[in-house]
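Dear colleague,

Following up on Tuesday's group meeting, I ran the structure prediction for the two-component complex that the binding team flagged. I've pasted the input sequences exactly as they went in, so you can double-check that nothing got truncated or mislabelled along the way. The structure tokens for the whole assembly follow below. Feel free to forward this to whoever is handling the docking comparison.

Inputs:
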Amino acid sequence: MLTIGKLAKAGDISPDALRYYEREGLLAPASKTDSGYRLYGEDAVRRVRFIQHAQACGFTLAEIRELLHLRQSEHACCNDVRSRAVEKKLQLAAKIRAMQTISAALERLIAKCAYGTLPVDDCPILAALEQIDGSAQDDAP
Amino acid sequence: MRIELFKVPVCTRCNSARVELQAVAEAAGAEWCEVNALDALDRAVDLGVLTLPALVIDGELAFATLPTPAALRRELAWRAQHG
């Protein structure tokens, strides 16, 4: 059995993060000592790595909970997991597009700047951000 | 009218509901087609498809999750009336 410190070291993660996973329903200790210390089975290392890899792929903790549930479900098949991966890819593609739009808006704002020669009161970037009609983002490049 | 079902190939959720929905669409005289979301990722993002399966009607995301046959029938009737 592993203590929380040993599991944290094996998973290259902090004990606080492991407690957070527990609060989120992703990881539970197999048992506790008489004095209340958490004890984890050897499979906990694999589970922690699974959670970390899934987070690195952009899955939220709620989605990871679902994936872990699918992994244990007798009725789930690989297509259920694949569907979630495709959905995540769609959501990431939408997010990338939104970020590109934001980046383009910033580029237009930066192009309005007079290279730091104006007082802050006359800053065109701050002025454009203050516009409430959103025209700063809609300006043609 | 053109109805597109964006889906993951061999999706069990899609297959079970697909047959009934296709029958509703065809009964209303609409064209039914199925799109592999992975092959049409850019278009899916254009349309706002973020979850699968999803139904697009005439180039507009109409159902982000699969509707019941009755809901699709109502939607098609409304669109037929209001152009």
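The longest strand of chain B covers residues 2-7.

Cheers,
M.
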